[in-house]
Amino acid sequence: MNEIAEPVDVVVVGAGQAGLSSAYHLKRAGLEHVVLDRSPRPGGAWQYRWPTLTYGRVHGMHALPGMELTGADPGRPSSEVIGTYFDSYERRFGLSVRRPVAVTAVRGGEGGRLLVESSAGRWSARALINATGTWDRPFRPRYPGQETFRGRQLHTAGYPGPQAFAGARVIVVGGGTSGVQHLLEIAGVAAETTWVTRRPPVFRDGTFGEAEGRAAVALVDERVRLGLPPQSVVSVTGLPLNEAVRIGLETGVLARRPMFERITPDGAIWADGSSVGADVILWATGFRAAIDHLAPLHLREPGGGIRLDGTRAVRDPRVHLVGYGPSASTIGANRAGGAAVREIRRLLAAGQAGPVPVRAAARTRLNSAT
Question: Is 174 helix (H, G, I), strand (E, B) or coil?
Answer without folding.
Answer: coil
